[in-house]
């Protein structure tokens, strides 16, 4: 059975229309990128099927997958079967996947024992967050990319994406695109905000002039927990490669909160986007119907028209406190004349 499936697949590839050009010139140097485990194969195939059907089968942007362990042949085959685009597999260097030597083992062991939040006992989740915050964009396989679009196992795309989000961002000078904004478990980031404030106090010139700091503040000098979910993000990588972002990441890494707490790459990316970018460089892809386990983001009206297969009457995330606050803060900066008084 396997042999005949192979025969069908290779025949299908040979018969592919002439628009198939995995190595052809693209309007943007971009890729779909994920850190994944071999055990994620099924969930990743599910996600890729939808990325392909809803968008990428018309563009053939390459995929790049990286892993702290060697990918199995089964994984590589299973992934390649989902797309005609180029797929590359990479491994990680030790420095990007380690507990740094400045982390005190006793203090860290106590933290893991006492942590009462999801993944609180795990080394791997913390290494994953640190890697995605500080190292993924510097991976050698991403060297020639100008943009990446992060995907994850088990995510779904509910609607056709009838334009190219990379081109959309490039034409408008957008640096960070997001889809879901939520409030963080504050137990995972108790000192992230104070550490960030120290960083800013020491590097005040790094703040963007028209930044969205107000989107992060709780009104009492603290962090309100608002962040973009980084499992979907489309990013102009010059942002993460900037000296400002690198300095911020290094400062956080030295402070140890990726391990002594459980700082996620999502709040780190988001705080950086809100402080180091101008509001006009951040974009809400509210039109992209998206699911990550437990959260549906379904565009308004999608239930009864268009190509979507999601129910917007059951999708609340567009009206999450953090999404509403974002819209208000961004508009007050980008288009103050059109801004109504805040009721958020
Ligand atoms: P959540 O979205 O915060 O619940 O975290 P996930 O479990 O979805 O992990 C985020 C991403 O990192 C997914 O793409 C996972 O496949 C990947 N990931 C998480 N832990 C590891 C790990 O230990 N090794 C590798 N290679 N990937 C990981
Ligand atoms: Mn996930």
Automatic annotation (TrEMBL):
GO molecular function: alpha-1,2-mannosyltransferase activity
Pfam families in the record: Glyco_transf_15
Keyword Transferase tagged: yes
One annotated Gene Ontology cellular component of this protein: Golgi apparatus
Keywords: Transferase
Protein's GO biological process: cell wall mannoprotein biosynthetic process; protein N-linked glycosylation
Family the entry assigns: Belongs to the glycosyltransferase 15 family.
Protein name in the entry: Alpha-1,2-mannosyltransferase ktr1
Upper taxonomic lineage: Eukaryota, Fungi, Fungi incertae sedis, Zoopagomycota, Kickxellomycotina
